[in-house]
Amino acid sequence: MKLALLGCGTVGSEVVRLMRMREEELAARVGEPVEIAGIAVRRAGRDRSHLPVDRSLFTTDAFGLIKREDVDIVVEVAGGIEPARSWITTALGEGKSVVTANKALLAEDMPAMAAAAKAGGADLYYEAAAAAAIPLMRPLRESLHGDTIKRVLGIVNGTTNYICTRMTQTGTGFAEALAEATELGYAEADPTADVDGYDAAAKAALIASLAFHTHVDLSEVYREGVTGVTPADIASAAAEGRVVKPLCIATREEDGVSVRVHPAMIPATHPLANVNGAYNAVFVEAESAGRLMFYGAGAGGTETASAVLGDIVAVARNKRGGITAFPPEAAYSDVPVKPIGEARTRYHVSLDVVDEPGVLARVAATFAHHGVSLATVHQSGRGDDAQLVVVTHIAADRQLSDTVEELSQLALVHQVTSVMRVEGE
Q1: Are 257 and 338 in contact (CB under 8 A)?
Q2: Which of 240, 236, 159 is nearest to 418 (CA)?
Q3: Angle, to 10 degrees, between the axis of helix 301-321 and the axis of helix 10-21?
Q4: pTM of the predicted protein model
Q5: In terms of CB atoms within 10 Å, which of 9, 200, 301, 339 comes out highest?
Q6: What are the b/e assignments for 58-78, b being 16+ CB within 10 Å?
Q7: What is the rounded CA–CA span in Å between residue 420 and residue 214?
Q8: 103, 203, 245, 338: which one is catalytic?
């Protein structure tokens, strides 16, 4: 059985290396040898002598490689939207199963990809797209298919988790923690996709679509990055027995699903609280199976390639058996995705206030006016350093936003310095 590899960067190179290193094992698991028919790259003349393949396999003609009659499987690890979209739809249209790690494309255009797979009678596997080596997509798509998933809470971006971890452990600021992450290779030269939540939002869309059997478009995922997290937020969380983590949250409710990514405070006793550094973890709550946690490396060339190889084995077995597996997206339930204003959770709000009698009562009255009840209130400082820290009971995001807007206009409130959601309680 032969495959076409599209892309030979960090992940693609590791796919090549692992396939050569595990050649006999892969053949035994599939039932026949799996060979690389060709590798599509942008620059065929580039030195790739470190890879254990003949240089004649490299080509710049991706479409020609895809359409070769001896190619059975297409593996796309180049990333981006185009030409990856055209490559994948062409392969599926040719009836060739596809393995991809392209979260951005799938999050943006999964219905079209799923339709192309169905029309071509081919498989579309993407285990590596959401959490690299962590086996998450297949459990959601297959193992838990007979259950009802109620909630998914996870850390799905290693860069931002490393930043929050370092801010917690050392008391450093965001900029310093980001610089450290960049130096260690955890952050790209342009970290926007990570620190502004785009990467996590794409993963959240894929996870929620599988978990709730409905299509969640990337544009429907509420996104908030970690650039606004301050040492004061970290310290305030610690004082209350919590830690700040960059979370992906998807919840099934009676009238729809809620999907969002943002930093939040969680109890220090929560399983996700001790997921540190660049590691990822996803906490799944199912009606019958209960609470499940998937943990491991959420990024890295070798780790991602491991998941890609697992998908290659799966689709190769299907090819040998003359079958296709589950559809890539079972969006039969067609439930609406609720706007962020309807999301319900608890909130941690910090305010710099005037140091005079009646301030607490006025602030509490403002929360009450918008239907937000208070769980705890802590007042500290004197004079210009007077501060109130409020933790609410569960309320809708819109209620909290309206409350904060009114508080900001009060003469006795100098500034609303921080608003952070509280999850996992």
Answers
A1: yes
A2: 236
A3: 60
A4: 0.92
A5: 200
A6: beeebeebbeeeebbbbbbbb
A7: 29
A8: 203
